[in-house]
Design a protein that fits this description.
Elements: E1 10-16, E2 25-29, E3 34-37, H1 46-50, E4 65-67, H2 73-76, H3 79-84, E5 91-94, H4 95-122, H5 136-143, E6 146-149, E7 155-158, E8 161-167, E9 175-181, E10 186-189, E11 212-216, H6 226-242, E12 246-250, H7 256-269, E13 278-281, H8 283-297, E14 319-321, H9 325-330, E15 338-342, H10 352-359, E16 366-369, H11 378-383, E17 388-391, E18 394-397, E19 401-404, H12 414-422, E20 430-434, H13 438-452, E21 456-457, E22 464-467
Parallel strand pairs: 3-4, 4-5, 5-6, 10-11, 11-20, 12-15, 12-16, 13-14, 13-15, 16-19, 20-21
Antiparallel strand pairs: 1-2, 1-22, 2-3, 7-8, 8-9, 9-10, 17-18
Helix pairs in contact: 4-5, 4-8, 12-13
Bound molecules: zinc ion (ZN).
């Protein structure tokens, strides 16, 4: 595909993360250069996941560079596919995001390969033989394209395009971006925005002065109550232990596991919950935990000063890490009260499935959902109160107590998003509300217009918009 005429200005194209929380992909086409901000995988319902197989709307070889806000797969997981389809430019991201992608993209590739093998075994693929979306070799190839960026350092990423990364406080390495187009607009990207209350990471830096702002809206129509979340976690674990049960926590491998561990440690230290064994059973979560530990010990500037240099803040003395399959299986034999943290966070795959299959049928146990549950996932089914759940080829009765603590989020809520935008040096001429389901995006759009008096639009998937300086 040819570039548009540079004299006609900069075009922003919403290739994903519009009307949904996954598949974040935003193309900035200046006429002289094409830069893709985030390159996420669609996750959740089947109709969404099938979009990963659709032809990419633009020629991947025509993209000069990718800028990555953070490592979560819904922002980074399409990169190996983009590389396989012909993108061979640099991928700019923070040093911690590069380390985390090293874990997450390889794991994502293994899941793709596994899915293809399974489809071939069962013969239910439309393609014969079924092929993976990408392989571990594709992931490795694109990881070689990564270039680590320091927060705050302005950087030429393509002809006439300068970018700078600022801390977003969402997960380790997460950034908000400011893209300055020569003789064109300055465009801000919130990426996923974190919270003031994050126990480990410094809060988001204020937005840059931009003409156009893209802001996420995962919880654009919700407000979190941090104290509620911690209270409800303590009560749920207490009740479960009193019944002699086990609490299972499906957690996103990156960041959620760390927050849950820190919180459990504090609850144990203050005797609000009994000092129970905590099993972290996910190779990916353990790999991410090791990266977090390294950053804390080395005194990284992303970490809150009071946490820097600590040895192992994640272990309240009862932490058991179970990297091997054998150790993971042995958790099935536990009959005393305990806490099991495993991935994936929406129970779409991973070791969490065998823990749910083992623990859901017993009313003494509990499942505590601590993160966003996309429609169509098993996590969402549990939240909706379904009494049977199919997994590992079997129907499992749901008798365990299901506890929803989605307030335990690493995403800013509506008020925090608005408060962050308010800190902008001047109002952007135009804001786009992205990365949210329809209700959430509409909620934030209203809040931006009512509280800030800014002009905000919810873009449609695939939409092209001409943007200019004020
Ligand atoms: Zn994220």
């Amino acid at each position: 595909m040819t570039r548009h005429d540079a004299s006609s200005g900069t075009i922003l194209r919403f290739l994903g993360g519009a009307g949904t929380v996954t598949g974040s992909r935003f193309l900035v086409d200046t006429g002289r250069a094409r830069v893709l901000v985030d390159c996420g995988l669609y996750q959740g319902a089947k109709a969404l996941r099938e979009r990963n197989w659709a032809p990419f709307e633009e020629d991947p070889a025509s993209i000069d560079a990718v800028l990555l806000t953070h490592a979560h797969v819904d922002h980074s997981g399409y990169l190996p596919r983009l590389h396989q389809l012909g993108f061979h430019g640099p991928v700019y991201t923070s040093r911690s995001s590069e380390q985390l992608c090293n874990v997450l993209l390889r794991d994502s590739a293994r899941l793709q390969e596994e899915a293809a093998r399974y489809a071939n075994l069962k013969g239910f693929s439309k393609h014969d033989p079924a092929l993976p979306l990408y392989t571990e070799a594709d992931a490795e190839a694109v990881l070689k394209r990564f270039r680590a960026v320091e927060f705050g350092d302005p950087l030429d990423v393509a002809e006439g395009v300068n970018a700078s990364f600022a801390r977003a406080g969402h997960i380790l390495g997460s950034a908000t971006l400011c893209l300055a187009v020569e003789a064109g607009p300055r465009i801000g990207f919130s990426g996923d925005l974190g919270r003031e209350a994050h126990p480990l990471l410094l809060p988001p830096e204020p937005p840059a002065d931009v003409d156009v702002m893209l802001v996420e809206s995962t919880y654009g129509n919700r407000t979190h109550r941090e104290d509620h979340a911690v209270n409800r976690l303590a009560l749920a674990i207490g009740r479960t232990a009193a019944r002699g049960g086990v609490t299972v926590i499906p957690a996103f491998a990156v960041d959620r596991t760390e927050i849950v561990l820190l919180t459990l440690g504090r609850l144990m230290d203050t005797q609000r919950i009994p000092r129970l064994p905590i099993y972290v059973d996910s190779p990916m979560a353990l790999a991410a935990l090791a990266i977090y530990r390294r950053e804390i010990q080395s005194g990284s500037q992303e970490i809150r000063p009071e946490m820097r240099g600590q040895g192992n803040p994640f272990d309240p003395g009862t932490l058991v890490e179970t990297p091997s399959v054998q150790e993971s299986r042995e958790i099935n034999d536990i009959t005393e009260p305990a806490i099991i943290i495993s991935a994936s966070g929406m129970a779409t795959g991973g070791r969490i499935l065998h823990h749910l299959a083992r623990r859901l049928p017993d009313h003494r146990n509990s499942v505590v959902l601590v993160g966003y549950q996309a429609i169509g996932t098993r996590g969402h089914r549990l939240l909706s109160g379904e009494k049977t759940l199919k997994m590992l080829g079997r129907y499992i009765p749901v008798r365990a107590e299901i506890v929803d603590i989605s307030e335990f989020s690493v995403h800013a809520d509506r008020d925090e998003l608005v408060a962050w935008l308010r800190r902008a040096p001047s109002p952007p001429a135009l804001s786009f509300v992205v990365h949210g389901e329809a209700d959430a995006a509409a909620g934030l759009q209203r809040a931006i217009s009512d509280s800030l008096g800014w002009f905000a639009v919810v873009p449609k998937l695939g939409e092209r918009v001409r943007v200019g300086p004020r």
